[in-house]
Design goal:
Elements lengths: L1 E4 L7 H14 L6 E4 L11 H18 L7 E4 L5 H10 L4 H5 L2 H9 L5 H15 L5 E3 L5 H18 L7 E3 L34 H9 L17 H14 L3 H5 L3
Parallel strand pairs: 1-2, 2-3, 4-5
Helix pairs in contact: 3-6, 6-7
Amino acid sequence: MFSGIQPTGDVHLGNVLGALLRWVQDQHTAQSTYCVVDLHALTIPQDPAELQRSTLRLAQILLAAGLDPEACTLFIQSHVPEHAQLAWVLQCTASYGELSRMTQFKDKSSKAGFVSGGLFTYPALMAADILLYDTDQVPVGDDQKQHVELARDIAERFNSRYGQTFTVPLATFPVAGARVMDLADPTSKMSKSASGAAGTILLLDDPKVIEKKIKRAVTDTESEVRYDVAAKPGVSNLLSILGACTNQSPSQAATGY
């Protein structure tokens, strides 16, 4: 099992429910490798000193959240040069069309003034992260599903051309909390880049601040509480969060109201 997290912005509720809680659980049931993916952060300009500080700070947070070095492997991506080396090989295995169809690239490149080449080839580096360790399971949020599917395609193509080399990975998802949405705009994903915003619950927020953000979360004018992402995105987001925190599906969480 392999999974990674970028050291940019602040750790928020989406990271906790979509990744960290599962990592802490899975480290005791599977051979688990977790990574602070600082190379991925370079797709946008970074201050080197600040990136170094945030990388080490995130590693500290992961250990404080419950990752046990005796039960799992935790490391910093740039400390293992094979990630970048394999990424180049996989870039040459993926097609231009496959990389250009990645929805995250299309979304981010349409908004950014400066679009780095690294943003375009990002999925190949992610594929290298996964395939380097013979990973068979990749716990991810919904927004990363397409990237894992590309990693599968690349692995299968490479194996077909050159012989059995890589394990073909499978994406796994939590029952709830795979994609936590912004509390103020439940049609958008909760983001680390929106640090301090009313719609983002940060891991290190004061409990009173968290309570205030939850109470001010966007819902709707109906009195009925039900899980319906299309018709009730705000309520559905809160039910998804509640379900993830109580080991229920969002629909099960709705039955208590």
